[in-house]
Specification:
about 130 residues, 6-stranded mixed β-sheet, YaeB-like fold
Length: about 130
């Protein structure tokens, strides 16, 4: 079972030598991917959470997932961790993969509204980041 994330932290997996996996924080201070993955209203089963966590760990340890049934580029730097009809969208920011949100996929192709949402969350998350 994946370790329970600290609700005060946005880190999902930081033990990997390749990169870290973190939750995006939107303009309202929410973490939509956390709510989908582990929140009170999450519809994911323990098995699905374990599977997603194994993908996060592989990405953190190796730095890539070559199986497009598990991880794929969607649009404009937005990627998706995939388990059958469940998706967790993300983007890369330096040495981090940032999880934007998750959803249940109901059609063959990625829903453009979900991709727009991922891009909006990315923009909000990056705007909150301190400029170095």
């Amino acid at each position: 079972m994946p370790p329970k994330p600290d609700p005060l932290s946005n880190v999902v997996y930081d033990k990997g030598p390749a990169c870290s996996i973190v939750y995006a924080i939107d303009a309202k201070g929410n973490m939509p991917a956390y709510e989908f993955y582990e929140g009170r209203k999450s519809e994911l089963t323990k098995q699905q959470r374990r599977k997603f966590f194994s993908y996060f760990a592989r990405m953190g340890d190796v730095g890539r997932i070559t199986n497009t049934d598990q991880f794929n580029s969607e649009r404009n730097g937005i990627y998706a961790f995939k388990i059958w009809k469940q998706r967790i969208y993300c983007f890369q920011d330096g040495n981090e993969w940032v999880l934007t949100h998750g959803c249940k996929k109901n059609q063959q192709k990625a829903d453009p509204n979900e991709l727009d949402r991922a891009e909006r969350i990315r923009k909000e998350h990056l705007a909150r980041k301190p400029k170095v």
